[in-house]
């Protein structure tokens, strides 16, 4: 599966700072020192509907991670999946009387368009769950054969007790885990499971649903968590730098995925930092496809909204914060974009060296994009009030905003 084209990242003078970021597993800030190649895995979409602002906010956060690393002169090995076979996708295809494969391809193509318009840097590997199945089957067989998984009426479940570190990603108690499991695709009440929290690794073929050859597992399709594990281990290996996604993925998805990988390899941890973006609400409720309270990036683009303004709207909130999308958020972003573009359009201006360092420091400090925006606001206000004599300053600001925040002025 192919990703989307990469926008050019301007080179800046000097060198950026190492990233300090909040780790869900420890509940505190960790200083990341990835070495010459930084490794990041971000969970992708289930393509049964268009990209909404909540999605965009998540991918914006991890785009900033990439940009901070690139500014330190590192390479970035970024991997993202597409869950192109799953119950929500199949259910939407049945509801709309369309082919599930065609629906997945259509929505994935639209996602690529949205990511390109928003100048999100693409992953090096963009892998669909379906194409990963040949690598998933042997992992499930290994877990079963080692005793870390068991069969139940043809399905194969992972035993969470096989990983002594289970629970260490989300830090939740068993009752909360069970509740979230039921809400987020699990089946804690199924009779016969060794532990209500045990997640499915391989679902035996159901009538009317797609299935694949699973070797000794029989025909079926993979569970949600093992898909990402197979892709991450194949392309990044254990101990990669950042596992990312929305905060609703901490449990069960990232918790279960970590346990799968740790049981498979005997190594700990799967990722050095588990990083989660906050949720975006509309009309007082979290944006979600099930509720239908969505603002789509593609709808905004078709209405003529500049993607740079959409990006500035996302950047105006700290990535870990839960926040609400309103018309005012967008209007503020449009006004900021206009001020910034006016400021960099002049032939000279105030010196920008200190500004670049301030933006670098803000982003290295747990991706504090709001603080970075305020720094640029101050420079733009100074430019408007009295200008300056540095002929290169507007160009430096324009390149810095593009390189570090993905906003084209």
Averaged pLDDT = 96
Q: DSSP strand (E) fraction?
A: 15-25%
Count every helix, treating DSSP H or I runs of 4 or more residues as helices: 13
Level-1 CATH class name: Alpha Beta
Low-confidence stretches: none
Number of strands: 14
- Give a quick account of the main beta sheet: strands, pairing sense, barrel closure: 5 strands, parallel
Q: What's the end-to-end separation, in Å?
A: 31 Å
Radius of gyration: 22 Å
CATH topology: Rossmann fold
Kindly state the percentage of residues in helix: 40-55%
Shape: globular
Describe this structure in words.
Helix content is 44%, strand content 15%. With 409 residues, the protein is of the alpha/beta class. It has a single domain, classed as 3-Layer(aba) Sandwich (Rossmann fold), CATH 3.40.50.620. The model has no long low-confidence stretch (mean pLDDT 96).
Outline of the structure:
This protein has 409 residues and is α/β, with parallel strands linked by helices. It has helices at residues 53-71, 87-96, 100-117, 129-145, 174-183, 224-235, 250-265, 297-302, 307-315, 327-344, 353-364, 369-386, 393-405, and strands at residues 20-23, 28-31, 37-42, 75-82, 125-128, 149-152, 155-158, 200-204, 220-222, 240-246, 271-277, 280-282, 285-286, 323-324.
């Amino acid at each position: 599966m192919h990703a989307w084209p990469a926008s050019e990242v301007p080179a800046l003078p000097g060198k950026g700072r190492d990233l300090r970021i909040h780790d869900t597993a420890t509940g505190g800030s960790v200083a990341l020192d990835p070495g010459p190649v930084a490794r990041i895995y971000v969970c992708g979409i289930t393509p049964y509907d268009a990209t909404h602002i909540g999605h965009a906010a998540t991918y914006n956060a991890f785009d900033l991670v990439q940009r901070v690393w690139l500014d330190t002169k590192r390479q970035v090995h970024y991997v993202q999946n597409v869950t192109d076979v799953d119950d929500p996708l199949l259910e939407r295809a049945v509801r709309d009387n369309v082919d599930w494969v065609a629906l997945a391809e259509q929505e994935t193509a639209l996602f690529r368009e949205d990511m390109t318009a928003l100048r999100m840097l693409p992953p090096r590997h963009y892998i669909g769950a379906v194409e990963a199945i040949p690598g998933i089957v042997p992992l499930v067989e290994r877990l079963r054969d080692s005793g870390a998984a068991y069969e139940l009426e043809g399905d194969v479940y992972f035993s969470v007790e096989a990983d002594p570190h289970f629970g260490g990603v989300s830090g939740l108690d068993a009752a909360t885990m069970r509740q979230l499991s039921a809400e987020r695709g699990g089946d804690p009440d199924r009779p016969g499971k060794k532990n209500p929290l045990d997640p499915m690794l391989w679902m035996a073929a159901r009538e009317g649903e797609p299935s694949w050859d699973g070797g000794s597992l029989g025909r079926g399709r993979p569970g949600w968590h093992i898909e990402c594990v197979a892709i991450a281990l194949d392309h990044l290996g254990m101990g990669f730098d950042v596992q990312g996604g929305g905060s609703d993925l901490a449990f069960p998805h990232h918790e279960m995925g970590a346990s799968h990988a740790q049981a498979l390899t005997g190594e700990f941890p799967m990722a050095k930092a588990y990083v989660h973006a906050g949720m975006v609400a509309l009309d007082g409720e979290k944006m979600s496809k099930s509720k239908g309270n969505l603002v789509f990036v593609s709808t905004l683009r078709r209405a003529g909204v500049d993607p740079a303004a959409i990006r500035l709207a996302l950047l105006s909130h700290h990535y870990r914060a839960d926040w609400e999308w309103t018309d005012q958020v967008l209007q503020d972003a449009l006004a900021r974009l206009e001020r910034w573009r006016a400021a960099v359009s002049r032939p000279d201006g105030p010196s920008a060296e200190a500004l670049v360092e301030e933006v670098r420091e803000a982003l290295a400090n747990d991706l504090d994009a709001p603080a970075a925006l305020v720094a640029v606001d101050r420079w733009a206000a100074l430019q408007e009030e009295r200008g300056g004599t540095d002929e290169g300053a507007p160009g430096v600001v324009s390149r810095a905003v593009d390189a570090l925040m993905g906003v084209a002025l």
